[in-house]
Structure formats: C-alpha cells, structure tokens
Amino acid sequence: MSVTEVLQLMENLLQKHDGKNFEDLHKEIIAGLLQYKTYDEIAEGLKYDPEYVGTVSRDLYKILSKELRELGEEEKVKKSNFVTKIEKIANHYQYSFQSHNIIHNNKINFCPYTPQNCPQDINKTNITNSCYHNLKFAPKIHKFCDRLWELDQLSKYICNQNIPLISVLGLSGIGKSYLVKRFIDLNIDKFEVIIWQNLKVSKGLDEVINEVLKAQKSEVLKTSDFCQFFEILREKKCLIIFDNVEELFASGDFSGQFKPEFCEYQNFFKMMTEIEHQSSLIVISQEKCTEMNSLDKELYPVKCLELAGLTNTELLRNMGLKDEDCWLNLVNLYQGNPVYLQEICLLIRDFYDGKVSNFLAENTLQITSNMLGKFNSLFNRLSSQEKEVICAINKLNKPVSRDELSSYLNWSSWDLMNSLKSLKSRFLLLQIKSQFDLFPVFKNYVNSVIAQGALPLQ
How far is CA 260 from CA 208, 223, 249, 360, in A? Predict the structure, then answer.
C-alpha cells in the first residue's frame, strides 16, 4: 500500500467523522506511527513539540475508533495498536498489506518480508527503474492549510483530463510551490516519471529533456532529442514541473516577455500543447506569459490556476499568537499570504508579546525587511509604463477607471490597456468591476518608498 493510499484513507476518515482538513502534519505523524516511533522522535525536526504531536495523534486514534465502531469493532485505538487497526480498516476497504514496512523518499511500502529481510533499496529510484521521481528541488512542506479546491482542480486537469500545460500563478509567498508539491505527495503513484526543476538553480532546458531520456536509457545523451523525448511522454505518464518560471522573463518590459536566450522554452511550451502525448507540464510563476493563456476554456489544452490569499486562520496556529478572535483580521490585512503572515507573526511574537490585538490597534500595515526586498525586486522587473501607472493610482489614492487614468496620464487607450494587462498578470492590480486599485500590501510599500524618496525606478 502506497503512502498516497494511506493518506487518502486517513483524509477520507478525517473528513467523514470530523469534517476537518487533512494537513501535512498528519502525514508526518502517520509515517512515524507506522514505524512505531515515539512522539519525541516524530516531533524531532518538525516545528511542533512532542505534546502537540501526541494531541494530534490522539485525535487520529479517535477517528479510527469511530470508524471501527461503524464496522462493529469496539476496541479503542491507541498508539500501541495503531498499525493493526489501520490494517483492519484498510482490509475492509479492500487494501491488502503486511504491517512490516519501510519508508524512503516520502513513500511507504508495506511488504511481506520481515524487517531483517526486507530489501534496503526496495524503494530507491534510479535511471534503471521503471519509475523515476526526482524531487530534490521540490520544497519540504512543514504545514499545509486549505487549498482543497485547488488540489481538486489540479487532479481533474492532470489525472482526469490529461491537460498538457498547467500554470500555477500568484505573488511570491502565496503557496504555489507548496500546492504543487502537495498534489504530488497525494498522487505520486500515478506518474512513472516526475522531474521538478527550479529555474533559479538551473535554467537549462536540455538538462530536463536529457534527464527524462536517461530515466529510460542507460546511455548518456550529449544533445537533447525531442523525438525520443515526446515518444516517452506518449508511452508513459510523466509530470514535469518548472518552478520560478519568471526567471525566464525580461526585466523592464511587459510581463511574460522571454529573454532572447530562453526563447527555446517558449517553443517548448507550444510543443507540449501541440504534440499528442499523455503527460503534463506544470509551470509555476509570479507572472503570466502568452503561452499560459487559454483561448477556449473547454477545448484549449492549457489551464491556468491563479492563487488568491488564504482565508483560514489555521495557518497562524502554533506561531505563539494570542487573541485568536483577531486572527482573521490579521489574515485579511496581509491578503492571506502565508509568507507575509509568517514574518508578521514573528514580529508580533517578538515585539508585541504575541498579542495580535495590540498590533492591530496601531492601525499600521507593517512591511518587514524581507518583504521590502521582494517588493523592490518585483518593482524593478516592471516596465517604465507600469511604474507610471502604479505611481498614478497611488497618487490618486482611490479606485480609478480607465478613463480617469488615461486622462491623468494623457495616454492613448492602447498604451494604458497594455500596462494594466501586464500589471494584472503580475498580480499587483486589484480590479473591482471597471475600476482599478493596488493591492493593499503593495500599495503600502509604494507609499513607504515614495515617502522616503527611494522609489527604485531602475
């Protein structure tokens, strides 16, 4: 039984009996319990104390006990019989496995061997195996909240509809990479080849193509072979992830304009949608390019998943905060951006004694130095026209229509439309019906640097 099946079983039971979300911490705890680890051992390396791990574990025992009662089994589930009770429930749902197991690379294999005889490399992946999963550049998930709808959409696009190109878009820190990694964790057994490429680390397209080829061949290829590459994509269910795709785009221009040296990626994206195969490419980016646009939502083989901020206060739990009744206000203030909120929570914990109400009472949207650096970098990517539009909206200090902006800037409708479209593609512009404004956190950044006379215009 794979880790996907274990997690899906537990997720279904949690939803069925308590209506709660299944989080990444549950995964870590279940993996530890299956290895008969102590709570201290499970908590080691996690950002939770052993007492909290024990509390969450006991909640899982209660869920299993409820399910067993429905199946006519009255024995109470506890740590000592957790594995046997999981086996009983799994067998009822026609899973079949032995309690001896090994865990390697986030995958649980139950096998009929004794622990002494169980092969140590049974779950290792290399280029000679039938499956090849390279996730060394994928993020490690410490806490995953919400995003159930987005996970369901990814599953529909990739597992049901075989969409060849899916873009996951949104501001830095919004949770794009976490979402995709969570999808992989829950569906890893559905793919024979998975490769995660972080374009901040390496931008060579040949590396990815050759890695897919080498995953099925023993010889080292000196040049990429597109014919062989797409033949593998036809024969096998492959998943390729390009993270930080904005690294391919030019600064000082409208969004999604490829740098000349990376035009090969532009052609590659088109080929993924034009050549028949059964595999998928996920591109994760802070800005959208033309190739990510869907011309026909029903027929065109491209899907775009744009992530908004979270509205769940659960992501603030265990961060040392007080005044839980104020948490939702804090989440809304920072647009539900997990990275923004993590930094602000540290600030509240260290300088406000964890009291969210005291922080909110100051009625000031604080921007940390790390957030400032990210915004500076983002602002420097903008075209000169986009910067002018941002400064104009900020100066008018209200939601404005296209006509008001056009009149204020004395621009043609075409020039203004291009700038507005580009800003929306970077997720910096809030549109309410026919009016435009800056997102609050970014607007506060613009106000701050203008007040300091330090707006980075180039």
Answer: 20, 20, 9, 47
Residue 4 has pLDDT above 70, yes or no: no
Rounded Cα–Cα distance for residues 389 and 372 (Å)? 20
> If we measure between CA atoms, which residue out of 444, 430, 428, 140 comes closest to residue 286?
428
Q: What are phi and psi of 295, to 5 degrees?
A: -80, -30
| Rounded Cα–Cα distance for residues 321 and 352 (Å) | 9
For residue range 368-406, what is the model confidence (pLDDT) as tens digits?
989 998 999 999 999 999 999 999 999 998 999 999 999
Structure confidence by residue, pLDDT tens digits, 294-335: 666 666 789 999 999 998 888 898 888 999 999 999 999 999
Residues in the chain: 458
Q: Which two tokens stand for residue 265?
A: 């990626």
CA atoms of 392 and 409, how far apart (whole Å): 7
What is the distance of C-alpha 411 from the center of its chain? 38
Looking up tokens 């996951």, which residue turns up? 168
Residue 100 contacts residue 139 (beta carbons within 8 Å): no
Asked if 187 and 241 count as a contact pair (C-beta separation under 8 A), the reply is no
Bridge partner list, 25:
none
Q: What is the CB neighbour count within 10 angstroms for residue 75? A: 12
Q: Are the C-beta atoms of 153 and 271 separated by less than 8 Å?
A: no
Q: Is 138 helix (H, G, I), strand (E, B) or coil?
A: coil
Rounded to whole angstroms, the Cα distance separating 430 from 452 reads 25
DSSP 160: I
Pairing of strands 435-438, 400-401: antiparallel
Cα 191–chain centre separation: 18
Angle at 342 between CA 341 and CA 344, to 5 degrees: 60
- Pairwise CA distance, residues 328 & 226, whole Å: 50
**H/E stretch holding 165:** strand 165-169
Residue 175: alpha-carbon gap to chain centroid: 4
- E strands in 205-362: 238-243, 280-285, 302-306
Residue 241 Cα distances to 32, 134, 183, 205, 230, angstroms: 29, 10, 12, 12, 16
Round to whole Å and give the CA distance between 221 and 97: 40
Of the candidates 224, 269, 260, 219, which has an alpha carbon nearest to the alpha carbon of residue 242?
269
On whether the CB atoms of residues 387 and 248 are closer than 8 A, the answer is: no
d(CA 138, CA 83): 29
98 alpha-carbon distance from chain centroid: 33
Contact 282, 241 (CB under 8 A): yes
Cα separations in angstroms, 269 against 156, 168, 213, 295, 329: 20, 14, 18, 15, 40
Task: Read off the pTM.
Answer: 0.72
Lookup: tokens for 155: 């599953």
